[in-house]
Amino acid sequence: MKTIKHILFAVLVSFVSCHDDLDQSPIDPDSFTEEDVFANADQAYGALAKLYASLALTGQEGPAGQPDIADIDEGFSQYSRMLFNLNELTTDHAVIGWGDAGLPDLHGQYWSGSNDFTEAMYVRLAQEVSFCNSFINNASVLEDNVVQNYIAEARFLRAFAYYNLMDMYGNVPLITEITTELPAQNSRVEIFSFVESELLEIQDLLAESSDYGRIDKAGAWALLSKLYLNAESWTGEDRYADCVTYSERVMNSSYSINTTDANGNGTAYDELFLADNDTNGAQNEFIFALNFDGINSTTYGGTTFLVHGAIGGDMVPGDFGVNGGWGGMRTTKSLVNKFEAEDMRAMFHTEGQNLEIEDISTFTDGYAITKFKNIDSNGNQGNDSSGEFVSTDLPIIRLAEIYLNYAEASLRGGGGDLNTAVNAINELRTRAYGGTTGNITSGDLTLDFVLDERSRELYWEGQRRTDLIRYSLFTTSDYLWPFKGNEPGGISVSEHLNLFPLPSSVLTVNPNLTQNTGY
Q1: Staple partner for 314: which of 83, 299, 352, 501, CB 3.0–4.6 Å?
Q2: What are phi and psi of 478, to 5 degrees?
Q3: How far apart are CA 304 and CA 278, in angstroms?
Q4: Average model confidence (pLDDT) for the chain?
């Protein structure tokens, strides 16, 4: 799956129904048709690769050209780039110096219903739902046990897309069939129930273990862990006991924390974000990752965005295995100040940078992040000799997050064992400190500590907005950071910003949909 196959097949209808941007058709229908794609299990495997690729890439040739979605910049609209923009840039974890229309609105928390970036994510996720529906419908005609496993993977990816849609947009259409009818709008509770039921049904249909880059049984458990952790925030129902149950299942699976780096030094956190993280031991921690190899899978999103975009000032691009910096993203002092000096997860470039941010458009205001690199464990550049495209895979769900889910759910009354939670947290902190000097006791384990530990462990991995909302800190005055609410010292903002708006273009197409309150 490292070399992602670009299999072209027709998607008959999109999540937004008549929205022409998502219509798909084969480039050469005389030589390659939908019937060819689903002729047998081998061909279906190639089609399955497209479902994974649609979260990593943006079209039929990288980095741009023959896009899956028209009228949206391919680099801007790639899934994990939008995940960063919506779930990290809107928080204390990141600012960005670029002035593209709608982009400064995100950190300043003053976006509107016509924001290009919130629309791009919605349409990208809608496309994934459409692709998955098409695959499930067409693959179902093949009576093959292997194909049934592929269908379970497709159902996971569809559930994952809906998990994101529910998190970000709340009430969205639930579409599981190919149809040309304008869809009705479903409630967040209904979407939650669908995602839950899908994951429960497919958990025994997925493989016990799978090829790197593909979802297995523990992947369904991990997404259930995330789902149940946020249940009270999204539906009003406490499901922390279920979060503990499914977190435990993942913790007892074959996945393991990467504690020893390739050279045996025992400080392996940085290796999670290097160009050989598919082979250096980090892959044992990755439950779900987007795969990039710098040659066959190229995009201006993904880790190419995270590496290039975070380089500027007096930073040397060659130290990161790339040919230049884009002078974009930094972080705020709110993240920097969460780390102790001995914590090796504090991966900041400080030389020539100001801790305080006076002008977001100035790259040297705010510390730069050095977490993601296009070099391997031995210091060699990634696969692309030009240094343009990055070979580093991007973890979307990794075991460390599940450890933190278990600890938080236990503290919230989920019935977990606090000694187990402390031991799990200390495994992460032993890696972070290179020894036991950062270890905690049960008396240190509080909800506030877990939130800060999530920040230290998972920054820039697309988690922060969701975490802050769960803690009722995203919009309120209980926690402020620089330029929250577009004020240097930070201010509270309207509660309606806990959800992003449904795109105005989609509302125009489908009168069955109602805009989220406040937009």
Answers
A1: 352
A2: -70, -20
A3: 16
A4: 91
